[in-house]
Amino acid sequence: MYTIGKVATLAGVSPDTLRYYEKEHLIQPASKTEAGYRLYDDEAVHRIRFIKTAQHCGFTLSDIHELLTLKQANSACCEDVRSMAIEKKLHIAHKLQALKAMSCALDELIQRCAGGEAATDECPILEALENSLSEVAR
User: Fold this and answer.
1) Which 8-state DSSP code applies to residue 27?
2) DSSP for 46-93, written as a single string
3) DSSP 117
4) Whole-angstrom distance, CA of residue 79 vs CA of residue 62
5) Is 41 helix (H, G, I), strand (E, B) or coil?
6) 128 to 32, 54, 83, 107, 111: CA distances (angstroms)
7) What fold is seen in the domain 1-61?
8) Bridge partners (DSSP) listed for residue 40
9) pLDDT tens-digit series, residues 32-42
10) Whole-model pTM?
11) SS3 of 36, please?
């Protein structure tokens, strides 16, 4: 059994993160001492690492809760998990498209501006942003 500080170190997270995961019902202590200190087992360390890996893949804590529920459900199958992974992948692809569009828009704005010592009221970037806002308002 591990204290919250020890399990946090083993799992590579902070004690506050563990408390948050506990609040979100993603982990729970195996027991408590008479003084009320939380004690965690090896399964908690394993679960925290699972959570961190899933987050690295783009899953939210809500998604992870669902994945953990699917993992324990007798009626669930691998296809259920695969569907979640596909949905996440599509969401990430959409975000990438949006980020690429933003990057292109910024490239255009940067090309319009040579920089230098001109006053900001003559800045082509600010002017373009200002004009776009006034066109949207019409």
Assistant:
1) -
2) HHHHHHHHHHHTT--HHHHHHHHHHHH-TT--HHHHHHHHHHHHHHHH
3) S
4) 19
5) coil
6) 61, 40, 42, 13, 12
7) Multidrug-efflux Transporter Regulator; Chain: A; Domain 2 (1.10.1660)
8) 2
9) 888 888 899 99
10) 0.76
11) coil
